[in-house]
Amino acid sequence: MSISELRETPHIKPNGVEIAETILLPGDPLRAKFIAETYLEDVVQFNDVRNMYGYTGTFKGKRISVMGTGMGTPSMSLYSWELIHIFGVKNLIRIGSCGAIQDQLNLYDIVFAMGASTDSNYVQQYNLPGQYSNIASFSLLEKAKKVADEKGLPVHVGNVLSSDFFYNADQTALEKWSKMGILCAEMETAGLYMNAAHAGVNALTILTVSDHIFRHEQTTTEERQTAFTNMMEIALELA
């Protein structure tokens, strides 16, 4: 039996439940549960291994799945690789939180990650003869921007930082990234974009500003799970 016919992994065991070709990927599994219960119809849970909840349902008549990915490039890369290569997912949309590092961003603002700079070494596995630029799939980015415009939701589109460091011993690191025009910091997008590019599928990250790092502003844990609804509603329209 080939790996593509296995249809389960040690981390995702759907027990025959379909995983849709389009999937929303919040880091927090409780955010996945909230989206499934709030927005989807005919919902069936397809995963609970390690409490990484995954669900499939319909939104406006279209099949769509949602699943948590955990924190950091290793976790996102593991789950997105399996979703792509084992379960045939074609459109992967990360919806997450970020820490703003530009003055024009405020709490609850929405960011579309057109590109994802990174301090991760994940790209080294591809043995590329140079530096690689991690970019979103234009088809998803274009559609997401159109949805946001139709909803009257302003968004920031640009480069984000996918960092392996939540607590960085180099206290000047984010200031340096900010000077290069990076909008915000998060921990997963670069790995997702690399997996998608290498497999020839589509990926996009949509973020909501949960913290402003330089202004020491932040939202609560509960708000991160349930209050970032504008981001969720844009992503759902991409199915």
TrEMBL record:
Pfam families: PNP_UDP_1. The record marks 224 as: Important for catalytic activity. Its EC number is 2.4.2.1. Phosphate binds at residues 27, 31, 50, 94-97. Keywords: Glycosyltransferase, Transferase. Transmembrane segments: none annotated. It is an enzyme of class 2 (transferase). The active site is at residue 211. A purine D-ribonucleoside binds at residues 11, 186-188, 210-211. It catalyses: uridine + phosphate = alpha-D-ribose 1-phosphate + uracil; a purine 2'-deoxy-D-ribonucleoside + phosphate = a purine nucleobase + 2-deoxy-alpha-D-ribose 1-phosphate; a purine D-ribonucleoside + phosphate = a purine nucleobase + alpha-D-ribose 1-phosphate. GO terms for molecular function: purine-nucleoside phosphorylase activity; uridine phosphorylase activity. HAMAP family: Pur_nucleosid_phosp. Belongs to the PNP/UDP phosphorylase family. Catalyzes the reversible phosphorolytic breakdown of the N-glycosidic bond in the beta-(deoxy)ribonucleoside molecules, with the formation of the corresponding free purine bases and pentose-1-phosphate. Homohexamer; trimer of homodimers. This is Purine nucleoside phosphorylase DeoD-type. The gene is deoD.
